[in-house]
Amino acid sequence: MTREERELTFYEAIGGEAAIRSIVEAFYPKVQAHPLLGPLFPEDIMPVMEKQYLFLTQFFGGPPLYSGQYGHPMMRARHLPFPITPERADAWLGCMAEALEETGMERELRLAVLERLKGPAYHFVNTHSNS
């Protein structure tokens, strides 16, 4: 079976390593500036950005970079120390939507990527207060 005969992974469809890097680089300034999200992140955002790059690469069907360095993602457990509200999940997805648009990703693909990220975003919700 040739490459053209099989379905592309999300990772391949969005443009692989370069695209994931662009998304992460467009995303985190928006997160840091967001009043609900910024306070949850450290001032030195570079390690967070690198982990996000590794995770999204794996999540979208690329090489298992995150697991190779950190083991099973266990993302809900890793986010439990932070108060994740439905409003913060919405804000996270909003920042991601802006980042995807900023990278020039085609609309249909952007919508598919956001749909794929909705599950994890809302799965991380662990509190319903705005504190």
From TrEMBL:
Keywords: Heme, Iron, Metal-binding, Transport
Coiled coil: none
Record has Transport as a keyword: yes
PROSITE patterns named among the record's database cross-references: GLOBIN_FAM_2
InterPro entries in the record: GlbO/GLB3-like, Globin-like_sf, Globin/Proto, Globin_bac-like_CS, Hemoglobin_trunc
Record carries keyword NAD: no
Pfam families referenced in this protein's UniProt entry, alphabetically: Bac_globin (PF01152)
Named cofactor requirement(s): heme
GO MF terms, alphabetically ordered: heme binding; metal ion binding; oxygen binding; oxygen carrier activity
Family (UniProt): Belongs to the truncated hemoglobin family. Group II subfamily.
Protein name in the entry: Globin
Naturally occurring in which organism (per UniProt): Paenibacillus elgii
